[in-house]
Structures are given as C-alpha cells and as structure tokens.
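Q: What would this chain look like folded?
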Amino acid sequence: MVDKAKKQKQVEELNASLSSATTVVIANYTGLTIPETDELRNAARKAKAGIKVSKNTLARIASKGTKHENIIDLFSGQSLVAYSDDAVAAAKVVADFAKKNEKLSIVGGSFNGDKLDAKSVKDLAQTPSLDESRGRIVGLLVASAGQIARIVNEPASQLARVFSAYGEKQ
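A: My prediction, written as structure tokens:
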C-alpha cells in the first residue's frame, strides 16, 4: 500500500507533466506485460514523450487545474497517460504501439485543452510531427531553388545556341 506522502508526490509529478504538455493521450493497457510496457516507454522516450501509469483517482486529482482537466472522465479501467510538448508525439507513440499490440486501446485525450475521442487521437497521430514538417519545407525550398536555377539558366543557354548558330552561318 502506498502511503499518503508517496501518493501526494505522484499527483504532483503527474500534475506538472500534464500542465506543461500540449497533448495528452489516455489508453487502457489491460493485459500488457512488463516487457511490452517497457517497450512502449522506450518508444515514448525516443519520441520525447512521457508515459505514466497511475491510479485513476490520483490521475483525476492530478488533472484538476490543468488545461487537460476535461479528460477526467476518461480515467477508467487500467489507464495510462501519455503526454508530450510536441503536438503529435504522444499520439503517434500510442497509436503506433496500439497497431502492433491489441492489448493497448486508445480511450481519448486532449490537445491544447480540447477534448479528443479515440478517433481524433488516431487522426492526430497521422499528422506529421514538427521535425517532419520542417524537413518537408526544407526539401521544398531546396527543390525550388534548383528549379529556379534551371529556369534562369535555360534562356541563357538557348541564347548562346542562337549566337553560335548565327556565328556559324556567317
């Protein structure tokens, strides 16, 4: 049995995590083994997201006073909380893991204080992350610069051919 001081510390830690998070995902993990849970935690750590398992009562208390307070009713059964500062990291980690392991099921979540159902969390997981979006933009800029250089050089090469042909004609 966890004493009152340990429970208070768990509530404070979860409250701090939820307060700073942009995205929170609630999932039921009934039947997950410890190695499977560790795999999920490792995936979350790599994605710069966090995973906490807590009693539902403590999670409800920790959610109060945060922008994610609207998810209190989602805590039922064996719940875990995934959270991230990145808008999509927590959703991606949980959704990807749920695809591979049917024991994990997404219940819902919150994005910047807006409550999400399970489908919305899965949709959010399909959104490119900030790093992926930056990579795409850089790729477009590089490709565009190359295209611009080809377009600018093309008239000059055509003009050079015209002058060359005219010179050969003379």
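The longest helix spans residues 130-169.
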